[in-house]
Amino acid sequence: MTRTANLPAGPAVNRRRRRLATTLLVLAVLLGYPAVTYVQALTDPGAGTFVARTADWAREMGAGPVVNALENWWYTGHPPADHLPGADALPKPAPPTAGDTVNAPAALPVSPDALPGEGVWAPEARAPGGQAADYTAFVRPDRAHTSVVAGMVAFDQNRVRTALIAGTREPGGPEWPEHARVPDSLRAALLATFNSGFKFQDTDGGFFADGRYGKPLKDGMASLVIDRSGVATVGVWGRDVRPGPQVAAVRQNLDLIVDGGVPVPGLAGDPAGRWGSAGNQFQFTWRSGIGTDAHGRLIYAAGSQLTLTALAGAMASAGVVRGMELDIHSGRVDCTLFRPDIEGVAPNTLLPSMLSPPDRYFTADQRDFFAVTLRAVAGAIPASG
Known about the structure:
- By secondary structure, this protein is an alpha+beta fold.
- It has helices at 11-43, 50-76, 308-317; strands at 122-123, 134-139, 150-155, 160-165, 190-195, 207-209, 212-215, 222-227, 232-236, 247-252, 256-259, 262-263, 285-293, 298-306, 320-328, 335-337, 348-349, 369-374.
- The chain has two domains: 11-75, no CATH class; 85-374, no CATH class.
- It is built from three helices and 18 strands.
- The strands form three sheets. It has an eight-stranded antiparallel sheet with strand order 1-2-3-14-13-15-11-12, with helices on one face. The chain has a five-stranded antiparallel sheet with strand order 4-18-5-16-17, with no helix packed on it.
- Helix 1 (11-43) crosses helix 2.
- It is globular, with a radius of gyration of 24 Å.
């Protein structure tokens, strides 16, 4: 019986094997790295939705243009209805309490077919002494789509203080003092939590808090600035607001959308990309914004299926003198109102359709956010977070 000897492979065979092994290794790395990072994005701490986490991951993988195109296609292709909103779309009224409303903002302008309570500011939590510390209202800012509702909350900054708290991934860097959540020491005074701005890969803006920079601050950017007493204001960095020893925290995001009490010209066109990716201003999607009025109130606004012009219009109608857009899209816009003045009252989201749980920021979250507390309740943390 003849046997075939196991002869050594020739040089050509060895080269082919090495090329095959190298190719397989490269494929494993190319396929394995996205898989690992995607699993991490889905399982990282925080309350982001599956869709929001997937979109953020895809942008980090360099697929931002694809995500933007898909979002433009989806959100512009599904306009809201032109009918009255259901009761489940409107803010829930606060539990009745005694106290005057002398410091409430003026009623918002509404159309002749206004819904009951539309445009009227309702008092929420009370500061010691009985006066309201915050008020909520709702309007329908899109006359072509009358089902769209924008909810707003106005904070009396004589009775509240605002804090900016860094997340685990936004703005990034070494761990921040609050560990990306509402500290225990703040909770007895907690009045509200709400979302911050875009991810920093999607905006040129900067971040400053706790005496350090998360991202460098940039002149000309819309900025929410908190001083060391906890008072917040909104303006253009380098024009309305500037660095100084009194500044405790700064969050920048895009350009102003309200200036001088009116919507900024060009919102509908966004020719220079001042308000995000091309076309996003037309999207009917969740949007949020923040601004200050002539009386120093801090006003947060948010709603589903809002275009950028509708958001700016709602903010201007509420008396905002200077205002900026915060984050957009479902799962990224949230505002929870607490009642530190009434024991046992459960927190409420500003709008019933907001997806984030009311206690979202009680555990570590990936994104930076704002917390508002009553001034007169012991345990409030410094304004920088």
